[in-house]
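Researcher: Go.
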Amino acid sequence: MIRLTGLRKSFPTKGGSVQALKSVDLAVERGEFFVLLGPSGSGKSTLLRCVAGLENPDAGEILLGDRVVFSAHRGIRVPPEEREFGMVFQSYAIWPHLAVLDNVVLPLTQGWRRIPKAVAKEKARQALRLVELEGFADRPAPLLSGGQQQRVALARALAVNPSALLMDEPLSNLDARLREEVRSKIKKLVKSLGITVLYVTHDQVEAMMLADRIAVMAEGEILQIGSGYDLYRSPMNPRIAESFGSMNWFRGEATEGGGVETEIGIFAVDVSSGAAGPVVLGVRPEDIKIGNFSQQLENRFEGQLLSRTFIGDQTIFELKIRDRTVTVTAMADTEVPGTRLPVHFPRAKIIVFPGRVNSGEGAAARVAQQKREDS
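Model: Structure:
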């Protein structure tokens, strides 16, 4: 449906230029909910704006189906309005002097197609019905809640019968409760319509709840593409692992026997036969077990309880193992007797990364580890 090949984009600065996209290749399938995930400055919004036609890449090609809408070397640039996308921005971008229905009608009557007003009103009412706002057609836009205003923006994008929806951080201005409500409505709606969505967010929970597939971006590059489960459980490097929640990091030296010597002791891990050398181990807080375990259990250590924080459905424990602080999350009703606790790291839950990796990923792991050591 959407194909990007060798997409590059730079922006001029006082000191030269900043490369926002570095030869990005991407394929979004028809009917897929595809999410671009990354921190500020990762290039995700720039990529979306290039697809929309709001930015001109320096190199590469963009195809919508079989149609080339941008090609640097062939000199092709189809205007944004002719790419037939629906776009929803971070700001609601609705006109405050217009009623809800008129906000949806205006782009239909004043856009490049300029359809008759009677037809536009019927399309607008259908779109408002889809987002469950048909009863608000005559209400002034400023009297809507934030969540309702964003649903008006979504209705406006759907009313043009788009080939795909492009959504740039559409929920970031909403509070937590509204974000969850609107997110649920968006997911249900686009699945029922079977529409293709390219969605930008910096929120990993939002990405995992919405996406069929996720592309993790950093510094203008796509680091890994996969389902939320694959990226969470099988990240290719420490940077991707930290994009999907907290990790406990341990530096160590792999031995030929399958063990890893770390600052808290020897771990039994699953590594390639005969592999040796520096490695970084990552374990998520919810995968660590605390309680009464056999002395003979592998990857069993003794920890001192430093703190316990109740957060509703979970309790967060801070434990000290030798000179390292380890974070563990457990069910809220988990009983923890005393301050000296057996701690178990299940072998299958330990992710092993080479100790020397490229593109600063090793540094990311070391920084994360140092923060925990200093806490």
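Model: Residues 357-375 have pLDDT under 50 and may be disordered.
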